[in-house]
Amino acid sequence: MNLKSAAAIAAIALLIAVLTLHRLGAGDVCTGNEAVEGVFVQQMVEHGHLLFPVENGIVPMYKPPLFHWTAVAIDRLAGIRKVTAANLRIPSALYAIAGAVLTMLFAFEFLGIDAAVLAGLALAGSYQYVSQGRYGRVDMTLCFFESLALFAFLWWMPRDAASSGPAARFESSLPALYLMAVAIGLGVLAKGPVGAILPGVSILIFMFAERRGRQILTMLDPGAIILGAAIASSWYLACYFGGRFAFLNRQLDTENVGRFFGSLGTMAPWYYLKPLLLNSAPLSLIVPVAAVYALLTPLLTRRRPDSASPPGRSRDALGSAGEDDRSLTPSDSARARAAVRLFAIFYFATVTFLSIAAYKRRSYLLPVWPAAAVMLAWWIVTVPLLAWRRAATWAFAALCAGLVAFNFVYIPRMEVRACRDDSFRPAAEEIARVVAPADPLYVYGFQEEIAPLLFYLDRDAPVLQGSLGDAPPGFIIVPAHVWETHQRDALDLEPVLTSDHGNRRLVLLKRGKSYACRN
C-alpha cells in the first residue's frame, strides 16, 4: 500500500470517527434496550460485578458480556469510574471505526484502492451503521466480529478451488484460520450462538457452492477448533460451574431457543422487508441488487488501465495514479469473485435466519453492512462499462458524501429530540436530592421497562407488587396517574416530590418517620 492509499483509508476512518463520536453523549439514555445494557455496565464498572451482573438486584444479564467487558476496559484505561451516556456508547463507536478500517483494508487487498475508498464511504453513508455506532448495545460488537470471521476465512482460503489435503493446507494461511476461530468465539461472546451460526452457515454454503467441500477438512485444525470453542464457551461455563443457571436459561433458552422456535410467539416473516430496504436508503435499496448480481453473474474484476495513464499503471477512484494500483491477475479476479459471492450468501442467510425470529429489531440487520459495503464497491468499480465506470464511481462517491452530511447533522439532533420528552434523567436527579443512598427506594405501578430510570438513579429500586398500601418503610416512586388512582388505598404514604418533565410525571412517596427529606 502506498502513501496515497494509506492516506485515503485513514481519512475515511477519521470521517467515521467524527460521525460516531460527535455529540455522542448529547442524547439521554431513554430507550429500554440501551438502558438495560447501561445498568449492566454500571454494575461492572462501578461495583465490580464483571461476570454476573443483575438488573435491579434480581434480573440476570441476558446477553454475553463482551460489549460490557469492552466498556469496562475502556473506562479502566481512561480512569473513569462512573457510567454516563457517552462512555456507555464509546465501545460501539470504537467497534464501528475499527470495522470500517477492517472493511477498507480487506477491500483494498481483494479489489484495490477504488473499492476500499467506496466501501468506506458506503459505511459512512449508511444511516444504520452510523446510528448503531452511536448506540450502547451489543449489535456493533457482533457486527465487527462476524465481519472479521468472514474476512479471516477469505484470507485463509486456498487460491485453487480444486486443491485438497496437503496442497490446500500449504496454500492456505494458518494464522488466518486461527484469527477466524478467535473472531467466531468472540462473536458468540458478543451476542450468543448467532455469532457463530451466521458466519459458519454462510461459509459452509459457500464452500459447497464453490465446489470446495474437500477443503472443509483442511479447516478442521484441532488447535483452531479448541481455541474458538474455549473463547465461545468461557462465559457459559463460568455460569454453569458458578451455579448461575438463571443466566444460562435466559441467554440460551429464552433469547435463542424461545426466540427462534416459537415459545416467545411469532411475527410476520416479511417484517424485515421494509427495514431491509429502507434502513439506509438509497444504499440499502442497491445492496440486494448487488448481492443478486454477485450470485448470478461471473465477476469481472480485471481493471483496464485508463487511457490517460502511463502503460502498466491504472488510476484510483479519485483519478490519482498509485504505485500499488495495478490490474488484477486472473487469480486475484477469482479471489474477488469468491469474496463477493460469500458476502451475498451471508446477506441472504442473515435475512432468512432472522426472519424466523420473534421480537425482531431492525438493528439485527447491522452485521450485513461491512460485507454489503464491499459488494456495493465491487458493483460500482466492475459492473459499468469502461466508458461509464469513472462516472459511476464519482456519482456513488457524491451520493455517499451527501448521506455523510445528512448523518452528521441529523443523527445527533434526532437522538436529542427523541429523548427530549421521554428521559427519566431530570426526575432521577430530583429524586437523588431527596433520597439518601442508604434510604430504601422502591418503584410501583410502572407498565414499561424501568431500566432508563434505574440507569439515572444509578441504584437498585425493587419493584413492589400487590397493594400500594402494603408498601414497606422507605421511598416509593410511582407514575402520577397511578398515585391518583391508588392514593385512597395508601393514606399513610406522604408525597414528598412531584416531578413533571415532558412525558415523565412521577410522584415520590414516603413511608416512615425516620426518613427525612434533603434539600
Which structural class matches the secondary elements? mainly alpha
Low-confidence stretches: 299-327
Order of strands in the sheet with most strands = 3-4-6-5
Mean pLDDT: 87
The SSE order reads: HHEEHHHHHHHHHHHHHHHHHEHEHEE
Radius of gyration: 26 Å
Number of strands: 6
Q: What is the helix content? A: 55-70%
> In whole angstroms, how far apart are the ends?
63 Å
Portion in beta strands? 5-15%
Overall form: elongated
Given the structure, what is the number of helices?
21
Word description of this protein:
It is a single chain. The chain is mainly alpha-helical and 519 residues long. It has two domains: 3-418, no CATH class; 425-511. The protein has 21 helices and six strands. The strands form two sheets. A four-stranded mixed beta sheet has the order 3-4-6-5. Strands 1-2 form a two-stranded antiparallel sheet. Helix 15 (283-296) crosses helix 16. The chain starts with a helix and ends in an 8-residue tail after the last strand.
Helix and strand arrangement:
Layout: H1 3-21, H2 32-47, E1 54-55, E2 59-60, H3 66-78, H4 85-111, H5 113-125, H6 127-132, H7 139-156, H8 165-171, H9 174-191, H10 194-209, H11 216-219, H12 222-241, H13 245-261, H14 273-278, H15 283-296, H16 330-355, H17 369-382, H18 386-419, H19 425-434, E3 441-443, H20 451-457, E4 474-479, H21 480-486, E5 494-501, E6 504-511
Parallel strand pairs: 3-4
Antiparallel strand pairs: 1-2, 4-6, 5-6
